[in-house]
Amino acid sequence: DGGITQSPKYLFRKEGQNVTLSCEQNLNHDAMYWYRQDPGQGLRLIYYSQIVNDFQKGDIAEGYSVSREKKESFPLTVTSAQKNPTAFYLCATSRDFYEQYFGPGTRLTVT
Amino acid sequence: QQQVKQSPQSLIVQKGGISIINCAYENTAFDYFPWYQQFPGKGPALLIAIRPDVSEKKEGRFTISFNKSAKQFSLHIMDSQPGDSATYFCAASPIYNQGGKLIFGQGTELSVKP
User: pLDDT, tens digit, for every residue of B45-84?
Assistant: First the structure.
């Protein structure tokens, strides 16, 4: 938490719709990350960005897209191609590429 | 594939007792091992972290023990309190960092009974 804002806290969408999750930070951290958390499982990395205008796929990038046009912002789009989009989505930032600080999360439900 | 295995899946401890959570990794290509604490509906919070050049690190009631030869590390919570009831995740960061990528364990749900 602290300087990391994720909105909205809860999000509901119909199947087949794209949805964009917001992540904003005022910590001046270079690196930002998106994770997905499913019940009873650890966090899995979707995408990460070390610097503005650059990002890399994580372990489960299929069906997701990101952009990093500003240092403060790293939005995640969950596309209709993502087969099981219902999950808790967490954004994180890092100053030194080691210590990661997480936002409060967005719970997405797709029906 | 790089993996971190965490155990137990759940743990019940009496107030004042010691909680111990273990993690093991399968290769030597990690150089940073953090632990996170997560309360229901919240994002994980960084608790404590260790690098492989030390065998133990203590911060208050929380201690990480690291065994490089066994490829294992563990979290000890001394004098466990009901407020410690949460899910704990271990993680590992690959050598050469790869942009700060973290590999997480599956989590341990800790319940401290009063």
Answer: 999 999 988 999 999 999 999 998 899 999 999 999 999 9
Radius of gyration of chain A, Cα coordinates, nearest whole angstrom: 13
Q: Is some CB atom of chain B closer than 8 A to the CB atom of A61?
A: no
Contact residues for A21 (Cβ-Cβ < 8 A; gap 6+): A6, A11, A34, A75, A76, A77, A78, A89, A91, A106, A108
Q: Tokens 């205008």 label which residue?
A: A53
The residue among A27, A100, A107 with the most chain B CBs within 10 A of its CB, best to mutate, is A100
Who contacts B27 (Cβ-Cβ below 8 Å, separation ≥6)? B2, B71
For residue A98, the model assigns a pLDDT of 87
Per-residue pLDDT at B41 exceeds 60:
yes
The tokens for A58 are: 């994580």
State the Cα–Cα distance between residues B84 and B20, nearest whole angstrom: 12
